[in-house]
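Continuing the batch. This is chain 6 of the set; chains 1 through 5 are on the previous pages. Same settings as before, nothing changed between runs. Recording input and output for traceability.
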Amino acid sequence: MFARLSVLLGLALAVAGCATLPKVGEASEGIPTFASEAQIDAYVAAQWREHEGVMRREAASGYEEPILVTGSRIESVAITNVQEEGVDEGGIVKATSEYLIVLRRGRIVVMRHTGATLDVVSAIDAFPPGDPAPNDTWYDEMLLDRGMVVVVGYSYGGDATEISRFRLAEDGTISYRDTHYLSSDDYFSSRNYASRLIGGRFVTYTPSPFEKDWRKSAPFLERRNPDGSRTRVGPLLKPANLGVAAGMVEDVPPYARDLHGVTQCDLLAEELTCSTRGVIGSQTAEYYFSREAAYVWTEVGHDERFGRAKKPWASMLYRIPLDEAEPMTAIAVQGAPIDQFSFHEDGERQSLFVMTKGRFNFGPNAPFAATMWESETRADRLALFRMPLDHFGNGAQMAPALTYRPLAEIEAWGIQNRFVGNHLLYGGGGYYEGEDDMPGLMVSPLDADWVQRIDLPHGISRIDRLGNDAIVIGEGNEESLGFSAIRFSQERWVGRLDSTYLLPDASEGESRSHAFFWQPDPGDPLSGDGIMALPIEREPGEDMPSYLGSGSGVFFLRRKQGVLEAAGELSVNPADNPAAVAAAMAADKLSEDDACDASCVDWYGNARPIFLGERLYALVGDELIEGRLVNGQVVEQRRITFWPGRAATAQATGGEGTTAH
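Output for chain 6:
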């Protein structure tokens, strides 16, 4: 048990009727929450007094603050590569047993994948009817829940997360239902996703400023009316659902100017109903969702104004249970995670593991934490953080030094990390143009204090799971793309390089985690044998092309008895199919003027492999290509080319094209 704070907190400045700050209780009670809006006013006043003091002290130095740009029977089928089983993530393609639903360039397209042909059944704009400025919003993510298609985007015109619901009928037609706006700052991340579907509940992360006029920026929901006006449908954040770490109540920090909200909504309700739980912290944060809770790790970063004002609770790890009856908890931490894959809630060990980076001190030169593109930078002082779930408390104490186990350092940009079974894997190298160092794959068991190095003939830009084993992907020599399967010994807690395949003249066409998919062979899903696929680019050499969706095809790879073997490629430009080449050229010509009104840049990628039973698909840009596995090789069966606002052309390989309307 954490010790109870023995001192009652003083009164704030004369605001809101001399309201006191939140009362700190026992650690088991969780972090302090607010009893009223008056208490929030008191905390904001104290926080801004500290902040303005720092600003006055730093005014003479000439410091300038940086600008940061920021009810159906239809059941979904799992086709998204997710971090946690049972936690679906917002993506650009979802599926039912009969239909594929694709979010592409501000449009939703529904295609039937059963039967002998590929057909576009229906299509609709992803933005509300009559929206005069749809290009103000980036439509990034889509979820499917029992016939309810939900599109999530960030509206720069409205400073809000835009949530639009669409009905998917059993005949495949899609129709608009409504749009709501959840107030928030931009949630964009180079790796993470904002929305999840957990246990039938829509869950999303939304940051927002926590300032003097906090009532204007605190999370609220608005419904869009047919004429484009908005109606407030009630506040989402009750004072009792807003918390702050106990250490930040006793000594109010000047940098805690952001509210990190976790909002849950009932998507199937006639009127969208939502609620938010939020915590107060610095702007820099990384978040992760398990099936039971959301975790938010906030860190001050390298803002020199606050470097000298840092307290032991400058960085805070919050646990926000999805069951709102459970208290929110926290513990003060050091450093920062690399990305969402740095987190792993382990049910068997009842612990949270986090791979962290950063110098473990609070000097003014502490490195910037993971935010926006920070995942792609170099990192030092790597460590594996382990915290038993029952050790989270009210945020008054700091995690002990023994909580962090030092890890072997590597010299690389864009470090990748992933928990696979009972091991943490991490590495990098060969990812950016001009980066030649290949530091190899580092493997560390969760229950031991050593790190194993496995040399690879290529760099590391992606790590994923193959049952109990792993696949490591990255750039090789002479513009090749390397794939290495890693096999683990559960008895010895070590890994070994099982097999490597080098694909010549190729690079990754996508950086997002959803771009990879693996389907195990029937019978033993944990053996690691099966077929996998990844979008590739056949003209490698450009600097970081995979961030903007440059996939030109999907490459398939089989693992059989541990050995990796090429299984074919479905491409937008197959050399052995002249008719398909002509169709692709026509599509490219039309795409120059494809009536795109919103999200015309593929921030979340343009290509995905899709596995539906025995059928394999490659979504590449405006083409959906179907293949079958024949004698270990993926053979193209048919394809359909679609683009917004125009007829779709379907073609069976070697046959005559048909038109679907």
